[in-house]
């Protein structure tokens, strides 16, 4: 019988926040009141952050919101960094069902992107938490799994799928940073989105001259800063175009083997020459990917030379 993830994790010395996120941490024996819990502490901390930003979150602020003393919180969450991780885990939540059912890999990744941007706009303080590595928490794992699920039927390697997933989540984070910043400015200035963009457009027109910034001036004259569409959608679509082109050029996997073929394969694996042939195939596929990568690099250099010549 295989061990469960919980039994495997129990053998590790997990940081308390990670153990709490996975629901395998020991609860305190007694607390100040029955209504105190890790979940309630995290909920109150998120309320503080949503209202006043991440800088306003402290053990004392959260305790005051709950009506307890700061020391009582430490029985449940032993450090502020642990609290921040649990807040992030709760705020990002789980990916939508559309990220797995929206259609092909591209539609699923687009749904994943949209879902992450929406989370960042709803809880912008999440973007202020420093990135120190991949959060090993259930919800973060679910987002990663959803991105890899979208690419599971493509010929991309596991490493390439992870890279594509990171590309999409990185674009979502950047979009979230800008959208959240604009939303904050709107609230502080008490203006609508249209009023804010009109104000920025007027400033650009007053300060940017055609002599000093000819290309930017032309874009301003064309009204790019008055466009009420999503300025990031085009870039996301073009990034996915690049992934699609790469997938089209990648070696396609063979159809899944039948039960009889799998039995034959098991017997073949005992043959040394067969194993060597399979190894040669893998090396050739790796060499082909490296060659294509080198060809793309040479093409970029050639285009750059042509631009300099012109």
Give a brief outline of the structure.
The chain is mostly helical. It is built from 15 helices and no strands. It folds into three domains: 5-92, Homeodomain-like (Arc Repressor Mutant, subunit A), CATH 1.10.10; 98-226, Tetracycline Repressor, domain 2 (Orthogonal Bundle), CATH 1.10.357.10; 259-309.
Kindly report the name of the CATH homologous superfamily of the largest domain.
Tetracycline Repressor, domain 2
What is the number of helices? Answer: 15
Count of the domains = 3
CATH architecture of the largest domain: Orthogonal Bundle
Walkthrough of the structure:
The chain is built from 15 helices and no strands. The protein has 310 residues and is mostly helical. The model has no long low-confidence stretch (mean pLDDT 84). The protein folds into three domains: 5-92, Arc Repressor Mutant, subunit A (Orthogonal Bundle), CATH 1.10.10.60; 98-226, Orthogonal Bundle (Tetracycline Repressor, domain 2); 259-309. The longest helix is centred in the last third of the chain and has 38 residues, at 272-309. It is flat and about 70 Å long.
């Amino acid at each position: 019988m295989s061990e469960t993830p919980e039994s495997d994790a129990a053998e590790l010395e997990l940081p308390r926040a990670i153990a709490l996120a996975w629901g395998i941490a020991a609860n305190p024996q007694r607390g100040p009141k029955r209504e105190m819990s890790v979940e309630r502490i995290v909920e109150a901390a998120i309320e503080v952050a949503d209202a006043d930003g991440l800088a306003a979150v402290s053990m004392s602020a959260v305790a005051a919101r709950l009506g307890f003393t700061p020391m009582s919180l430490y029985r449940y969450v032993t450090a502020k960094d642990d609290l921040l991780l649990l807040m992030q885990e709760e705020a990002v939540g789980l990916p939508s069902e559309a990220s797995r059912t929206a259609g092909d890999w591209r539609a699923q990744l687009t749904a994943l992107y949209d879902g992450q941007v929406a989370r960042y706009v709803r809880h912008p303080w999440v973007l202020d938490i420093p990135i120190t590595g991949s959060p090993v928490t259930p919800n973060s794992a679910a987002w990663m799994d959803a991105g890899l699920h979208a690419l599971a039927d493509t010929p991309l390697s596991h490493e390439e799928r992870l890279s594509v997933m990171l590309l999409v989540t990185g674009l979502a984070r950047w979009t979230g940073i800008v959208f959240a910043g604009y939303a904050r400015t709107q609230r502080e200035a008490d203006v609508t989105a249209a009023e804010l963009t009109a104000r920025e457009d007027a400033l650009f027109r007053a300060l940017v001259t055609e002599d000093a910034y000819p290309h930017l001036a032309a874009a301003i004259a064309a009204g790019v800063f008055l466009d009420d569409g999503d300025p990031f959608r085009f870039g996301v679509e073009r990034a996915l175009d690049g992934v699609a082109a790469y997938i089209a050029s990648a070696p396609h996997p063979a159809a899944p083997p039948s039960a009889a073929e799998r039995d034959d394969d098991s017997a073949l694996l005992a043959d040394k020459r067969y194993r060597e042939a399979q190894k040669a195939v893998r090396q050739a596929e790796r060499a082909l990917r490296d060659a294509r990568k080198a060809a793309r690099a040479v093409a970029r250099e050639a285009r750059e030379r042509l631009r300099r010549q012109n």
